């Protein structure tokens, strides 16, 4: 290889980078619809699996199975807003920069065949390395968690990444978000052993403290907003 | 890529001869990139808990090594020596991003399991190693074969590792349970060590041990 002049080197670099950029831009544009569809499908499947709808085609009937609503952080319904496309993490990010911004929350109401209502909620926060998020099923009493799903973008495998395992998620089943006086206390992820006698806490993950704290924090922030809405509903849905 | 190919037409090669066949078979055993050259170990530890994602990882690495070898070999006489490493990296990155995007579009579940490790193929030493050691000095077709051979060599090792890790760690092969429930009822438990990266170190070490005992000529003379 003979050594080449600066001009030749720069021209070569420009040609290579331009071709690479064009190729990548084309691929990203062409594959975007298929990727978005996967993300939407996964979200719908996650939400439906909270109430045990795990069939491979259930997500296609998503709109028929659940009623989607959007509320703001004060518990007021925002009419006409689309829930499924709402990016909760982005909403919360905007609100940290602009304190006056009201976070919009997507919410799905599921009525089982017996007529019992379950509120399907979303939550989003930050772990150690990046975003973490979750889906929660709250009973119509506005107090009891029926199930929880968590996931993360890139927490440490074996440590923080354990939040998406059944062992961690199943701990949330039947936990209560209100104390005996009916005040909101959320469910904390903390160190130590927790059993049924401790309705407001679950075991944290050893070595995953920052991720665990992130889960506690996002649950506290987001459940508080959802409860403002759900508490307004409680009298209407009561059998009396 | 096709534009480059037009500028530098591939030299016509006759049938795949003995030399070409050696390019494929050597990296499978005597010159294996993982167990002999000890390259690409990091991903061999990280992605091998289950066979299905491992298979996809092996195919992804093979595609990237083979195609980047081919493209770099086509350009080898035009690449200015002073920027050759960065040009190699650009080509590798483009291919890796394409693989990652395609996985996200068509194999979403697996792409989530592999997460960052697909992106990290860019830093897989096997890729850069083959570009520097082979593609920069050889014609496109042998370079493509060399890339395929090394990809298969890598894939063979990580699939073997994944086989033992999935079998011993979760009692499954390709996600299908192979250890009968009766065994678990009789007190058999899955080996938790196999589920963590340290388990892969043991399996890779055993692999190298077996390979070196079978092929004595690989041992360095004292």
Short descriptors:
heterodimer, A: alpha+beta, two-stranded parallel sheet, 5 helices, 38% helix, B: 222 residues, two-stranded antiparallel sheet, 11 helices, disordered N terminus
Structure description:
The termini of chain A are far apart. Chain A has one domain. Helix content of chain A is 38%, strand content 20%. Chain A has 240 residues and is an alpha+beta fold. Chain A has a five-stranded antiparallel sheet, sandwiched between helices. Chain A has a two-stranded parallel sheet with strand order 6-7. Chain B has 222 residues and is mainly alpha-helical. Chain B has a domain at 33-160. Chain B is 64% helix and 2% strand. In chain B, strands 1-2 form a two-stranded antiparallel sheet. In chain B, helix 4 packs across helix 6 (108-114) and helix 5 crosses helix 6 (108-114). Chain B is globular, with a radius of gyration of 19 Å. Residues 1-13 of chain B have low confidence and may be disordered. Chain A binds chain B through residues 1, 3-4, 8-9, 12-13, 16-17, 19-20, 23-24, 27-28, 31, 34-35, 38-39, 42, 154, 157-158, and chain B through 1, 3-4, 46, 77-83, 86-87, 90-91, 93-94, 97-98, 101-102, 104-106, 108, 115-116, 196-197.
Q: How would you classify the quaternary structure?
A: heterodimer
Gap between N and C termini of chain A, in Å? 88 Å
Question: Order of strands across the biggest sheet of chain B?
Answer: 1-2
Q: What do the pLDDT scores of chain B average to?
A: 83
| Structure annotation, total helices of chain A | 5
**What integer is the average pLDDT of chain A?**
87
Name the overall outline of chain A: globular
Largest binding interface between chains: A-B, 24 and 29 residues
Q: Helical content of chain A, roughly?
A: 25-40%
Q: What is the succession of H and E elements of chain A?
A: HHEHEEEEHEEH
Query: Helical percent range of chain B?
Result: 55-70%
- N→C terminal distance of chain B: 48 Å
Largest sheet of chain A: 5 strands, antiparallel
Counted beta strands of chain B: 2
Kindly provide the radius of gyration of chain B, computed on alpha-carbon positions and rounded to a whole number of angstroms: 19 Å
Strand proportion of chain B: under 5%
Strand order of the largest sheet of chain A: 1-2-3-4-5
Helical/strand content category of chain B? mainly alpha
Compressed to H and E, one letter per element, the order of chain B equals: HHHHHHHHHEEHH
């Amino acid at each position: 290889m003979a050594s080449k002049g600066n001009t030749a080197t720069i021209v070569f670099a420009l040609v290579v980078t331009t071709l690479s950029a064009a190729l990548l831009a084309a691929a990203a544009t062409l594959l975007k619809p298929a990727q978005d569809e996967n993300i939407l499908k996964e979200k719908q499947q996650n939400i439906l699996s909270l109430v045990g709808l795990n069939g491979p085609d259930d997500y296609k009937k998503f709109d028929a199975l659940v009623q989607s609503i959007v509320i703001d952080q004060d518990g007021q319904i925002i009419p006409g807003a689309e829930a499924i496309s709402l990016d909760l993490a982005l909403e919360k990010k905007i609100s940290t920069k602009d304190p006056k911004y009201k976070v919009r929350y997507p919410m799905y109401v599921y009525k089982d065949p017996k007529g019992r209502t379950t509120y399907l909620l979303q939550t989003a926060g930050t772990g150690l390395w990046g975003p973490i998020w979750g889906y929660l099923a709250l009973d119509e009493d506005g107090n009891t968690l029926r199930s929880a799903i968590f996931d993360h973008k890139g927490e440490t495998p074996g440590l923080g990444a354990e939040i998406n395992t059944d062992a961690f998620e199943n701990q949330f089943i039947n936990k209560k978000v209100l104390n005996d006086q009916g005040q909101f206390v959320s469910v904390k992820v903390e160190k130590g052993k927790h059993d049924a006698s401790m309705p407001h806490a679950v075991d944290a993950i050893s070595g995953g403290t920052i991720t665990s704290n992130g889960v506690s924090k996002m649950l506290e922030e987001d459940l508080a907003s959802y409860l403002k809405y759900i508490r307004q509903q409680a009298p209407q849905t009561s059998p009396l | 890529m096709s534009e480059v190919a037009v500028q530098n037409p591939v030299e016509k090669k006759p049938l795949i001869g003995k030399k070409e066949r050696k390019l494929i078979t050597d990296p499978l055993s005597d010159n294996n990139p993982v167990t002999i050259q000890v390259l690409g170990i990091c991903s061999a530890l990280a992605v091998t808990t289950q066979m299905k994602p491992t298979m996809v990882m092996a195919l992804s690495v093979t595609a990237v090594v083979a195609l980047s070898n081919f493209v770099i070999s086509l350009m080898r006489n035009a690449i200015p020596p002073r920027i050759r490493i960065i040009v190699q990296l650009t080509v590798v990155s483009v291919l890796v991003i394409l693989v990652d995007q395609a996985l996200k579009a068509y194999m979403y579940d697996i792409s989530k399991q592999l997460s960052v490790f697909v992106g990290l193929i860019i830093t897989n030493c096997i890729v850069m190693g083959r570009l520097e050691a082979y593609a920069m000095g050889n014609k496109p077709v042998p370079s493509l074969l060399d890339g395929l051979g090394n990809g298969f060599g890598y894939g063979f090792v990580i699939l073997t590792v994944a086989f033992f890790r999935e079998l011993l760690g979760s009692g499954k092969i390709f996600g299908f349970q192979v250890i009968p429930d009766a065994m678990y009822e009789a007190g058999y438990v899955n080996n938790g060590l196999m589920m963590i990266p340290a388990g892969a170190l043991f399996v890779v070490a055993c692999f190298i041990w077996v390979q070196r005992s079978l092929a004595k000529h690989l041992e360095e003379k004292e």
